[in-house]
């Protein structure tokens, strides 16, 4: 999977250890004092603590903008818009600032700590061979010589066995090449010096498998039994653990402490602001991490991104009411009222649960991570406890069982009203919603269940999806967007699985081509199943109001109007003036959250 679009920057600061950037252009971080540097073109009314901003143009709403608006006033104390207006009817308004404004953009499905950790890890995305992985790891260790010990395992993300030709093994893990096929002797000596004996845990591109070094394998019993809902890859050798089997490894992992997580959060938020994000839905956060989020969001000036978090029990797919965290702050820098459940694994590793076998592996139809009765009882228990239920479902069987579970919960939650009425208040979501049988697409519409879709997953998977699914399932079931548009999908990226840039997601949704190459798969270069493409403003709606609705924040987020959060994004041009291809490389000019500038391209 190509990931050439992502660029990382170095965070300079007190955290000396372990910031790794192993590739791409290094741009100096923008250290942007919040709310400073805006004195020139802005009216500040000190008594009211109100500010008025005017721009070349302001689009107040993705789909139904108020015409003519070019100014807004906000309350600094509240961090909300107090007035949105057209300056032509005013006598005295501030000079227009350059640029065109969009409502604050949200990513409807990402992983904040995972992304922060990714920014501090070896980046293996797009590596085409074990040699290349080894080179990236060596570069990483050049910058992070102290990482890779038993107390501080080195982490990496983004390898893909399809690019490597086979599943890697601990013996091939770039540390201990006993096998010289992939390395010259000279390189091996160096590899031995720098890499041998290190503790390395490298996640697959979809984070559904992890590949560990011999030092970590040595911690595990030599005779590992199979794991339900997971796979221990044993051929060509040991080293890779998938889905539930990852827990065997994770049980030994010395987890990052609070200080390190704080560093992850800070790095992630800075990067996310650069691409125009003002908020994100964190799709699965453990209770202890939510407590850390709670503290940071109330006390730390570096917490500048709005987060809507779904709680995930320490033990996946359980009911853990004693650990449950619900948070709603007035300022809404953090809110938690959803829970994350997982029905299946990923398509790339044949882990998605399908009704019928895979077309390219007829011996399997994938696997569920929980059975139908457990999924239903969890959905009922969590929703009865007042939580929004968000179920990860990729394969058509997983999506079917997720809908069954939701239907059963509606029946007990709202015995006197229709599933659609019940859903309007509950806002159950299916995360990914990738492959859905036509019968279940119909049920989804009847119930109004919200699909939470990542458009770049479609363009990353398009090269092999049809091999897995066959032509018929691909055409009728896979990667729906237009077909589910009336359900107000939440759009996102699933960062760090995909780059977080929402304009790449918008491009993927509109063009159904890869934002990295600009092309569709062979035979469909002009766009993959373009009948499922959506319009530009519909795509932006999914990243603004769609995301807001999926987080119970409609009217407050993803829109510019009186009473909404004073969040906005500034572009050089109007979004519909850059052209489809222009979306791929679009650079945000400024990002503002709660009336404070959190990113400025020009410093
Ligand atoms: C390693 O060497 C063995 C034979 O010694 C060979 O069968 C295998 O394919 C090699 N593996 C790799 C990854 O090159
Ligand atoms: C489903 O899984 C649960 C928990 O593993 C188990 O107790 C139950 O017997 C299973 N139910 C069925 C119908 O297989
Ligand atoms: Zn995810």
UniProtKB/TrEMBL annotation:
User: The organism sits in which domain of life?
Assistant: Eukaryota
Is Signal among this UniProt entry's keywords? yes
Q: Say if the entry is tagged with keyword Signal.
A: yes
> What span is annotated as the signal peptide, if there is one?
1-20
Molecular function GO terms recorded: hydrolase activity, acting on carbon-nitrogen (but not peptide) bonds
**What InterPro entries does this protein's entry cite?**
Amidohydro_3, Metal-dep_hydrolase_composite, Metal_Hydrolase, YtcJ-like
Amidohydrolase domain: from which residue to which, for each copy? 99-599
Keyword set for this entry?
Signal
Read off the PANTHER family from this record.
Answer: IMIDAZOLONEPROPIONASE (PTHR22642), PROTEIN LONG AFTER FAR-RED 3 (PTHR22642:SF2)
Q: What is this protein called?
A: Amidohydrolase family-domain-containing protein
Tell me which species this is from.
Podospora appendiculata
| Highest classification ranks of the organism | Eukaryota, Fungi, Dikarya, Ascomycota, Pezizomycotina
